[in-house]
Input
Amino acid sequence: MKCSKCQAEAIYFAKYNGLYLCREHFNDMIEKRVKSEIRNQVDLKKPMVRISVAISGGKDSSVTLYLLHKILSKRRNVELTAFTVDEGISGYRPAGLESAIKLTKMLGVDHSIIRFQDSFGMTLDSIVGADASRIPCSYCGPLRRKLINEMAERQNADYVALGLNLDDYSQSILMNVAKGDYDRLLRMSPQKEAKDGLVRRIAPLRSVLEKEVVLYAVINGIPFDSSWCPYYSRAQRNIFREVVNTLSEYNPSTKFSILKFFERARSDVQRNDKALGRCRICGAPTENDVCSACAAMESLRNERK
Ligand code: SF4
Ligand code: ZN
Output
């Protein structure tokens, strides 16, 4: 098949808009889409914008860093840094870390590492060993979110970039709807406003399909680790992945429609958000008395009693 925009051989068919695309026009489409996300999510008019990228070494966060670097590194007012959260998952995290180090070296971006073991005194593997009653992600998620914010604050970042693709993003919207968690739905990244103590999260890839992220990484020679977390199969998210994929078989633009619907609905909502308080155990910003990372560690201690 020929590219719908030129005479070159097509490497990709975008079912949702009927376009066949060659390598160059595929890259073009992805880069334009991400540029527009960045313009909407980041205030580039500020005299200095510091963006910290949370890079796991997987495809999504690696492409996020690569594209932020490609699109923004020539701007004098933008400073990019990166860091990896090492949860302590043997057989998985070391390879991701290695990939993250390779990519940050290749791009010349500063990179640091923050470990569960140093911050919580335990690796995720040992947490999972101590409490088999909860799914590993229910510990991993809040603990990692806490360290992501801590690290971004330490790097003095105005924004912290996460590697969420459109598949993840549309799944998260439906998950929050299905749980009836309206507050969490409205709090989804990218946040429109800064909140005291919380670095604003951005998601530059949220309108790029997962398979497009993989193709972009492969054809542009971006190093990434393709192994799966050993705890992944137990993630609740899998149910929603199936639901969204099934809906997309009937209508290939479903994931885009979910995103569009969410953005329209969210922009219509006028809210006076609760001001953030501080966790009484660790002092991290939270809407509750205790932050979700401390609540998870508390429940682990009770489990071990
Ligand atoms: Fe953590 Fe779950 Fe992701 Fe594994 S799949 S890294 S346990 S959130
Ligand atoms: Zn073309």
